[in-house]
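Page 47, continued from p. 46.
Same chain as before, 328 aa.
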Amino acid sequence: MEEPELPVLLVNEVGGALGVLEAHVPFLKKHFHLITMKEFLESKEYFSAKIKAIYVWWHKPVIDEELLKSLPNLKVIANSGVGMDHLDLELISGFGVKMASAPYAVSTSTADIGMALLLTAARKLVEGCQIAVSPDTEQLPINWLGDDISGATLGIIGMGSIGYKIAQRARAFEMKILYHNRNRRKEDEELIVGACYCQKIDDLLQQSDFVMLVVNLTPQTYKLIGKRELELMKPTATLINISRGPVIDQDALVEALQSGVIKGVAMDVTYPEPLPRDHPLLKLKNVIITPHLGSKTHKTAYMITEEAVENILAALWGLPMPSEVFPG
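Result:
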């Protein structure tokens, strides 16, 4: 008996800066016939009707109306992360195509990077490293003082799976935890991590020594933190962003950092990415920026692909998708 033909999966490319990781290809090929965008464009008439699914790896391939019109049998698009702001969900849904994210795979490593940024900012690790390795350093500074984490107040804006894991980690550091979320967590979940709910974001901003942004980018969260919100924060407070760059009004942030409205910022995300090399944020000493490292670990990357495959196969078999995303 002949083996059933594998469903065709479209990816941007294999390897390179914008392609699925080569280490993941054997796993993908167990379930799909893999086609790159280059192969598709070179043989469009042949592949158009065959492609059943797309795996979007770090925003590529770009999903636009032209591509969707050229794939009449497309059933599902799986995204390699939890943020879906780079996809037009209404447009995709209008073509009858299902969508999936990867919230379970990314939560642990993203929570880790949030705590790493918090610790780095509090203990001045970047500047300390520069002093330690500088050829001009003859004596280590005795009065090089950072801030304590234990006993400090952490305000978490967005208490989904990632936010909750940050609260678990902060609890272990004996931090006081406040959180603001669209929906309040269950009482027993709050008690486990010792978190107090702030119905108003203003209350959280005014009380926190560290404010961490862990929200999805939506019309409601676009520039969620602007001039007014920054001025509500303590002048000794540090802002940490592991969500999406546009959640912060960067112009207002630059002004707040330059004028001492807040102490500093640590960001794994900006807009655009990367920032222009002459951007003022790159010139300030009270700024830490990392290149969107949130979910970038070997284990997490593989888990993302596993989650994508699980969602795609469920959609193709007509089963419930574990991480389906709906427009609106």
